[in-house]
Amino acid sequence: MASSSAITQVLETDVWTKATWEEFLAFADDSTWEKGKFYYDREQMRVEMSPVGPLHARHNSIIPYVVILFAALRNIRVVQFANASFRKIGIREFQPDLAYYIGSDLRVPPNDSNSPVNLNEYDPPNLVIEIGASSFSDDLGNKRLLYEGAGIGEYWVERANAREVFAFAINGGGSGRIQESRVLPGLEIALVEEALNRSLTQDDGEINRWLIQTFSQNQRSI
Length: 222
What we know:
Number of helices: 7
Order of helices and strands: HEHEEHEEEEEEHHEEEHH
Strand content: 25-35%
Distance between the termini: 57 Å
Shape: globular
């Protein structure tokens, strides 16, 4: 285990800092940092303090409506994890705002433990979503590289202040921007943005009724 002086040197939040895996674990497994979000990749760690304001919280509820309702109406298997940690021991860790296992061919972790998901035993989620304001540049940069290496199939970044969603399909360790989801075929990213914009003037019931109507109409037209 790293010494306390070495650990103190990587305490600064919201920046990537060089650290050993042992130094990273000293924070990630410490209950005093339970409100932090933890990332580790290529001997670099990042600790973020979770946002508590209504902007992030509201958007963190709107986007799941879109994903879950679309999958439900298309009879697509989906399992959602919010703020869960995923760990490849000794290599990387990530704690996205939202993560989804979509389809029936993935090894999905059970919900019987609060320990990080062990990616040596279970598959990584195939859709990961980050909602960022101050962290937006990093979400598009280093975190995108992390998810490219982690075997994620699709990555969405929402710029919360602008209600703009950047979606990327990941394949072969690289990624490219897409306008329609690959893991949820038929779901246009513009519709996700519209749902977020509707949250400015509509309550959750109105947004859900609009989503159901829109998805139902789209399904009938296929």
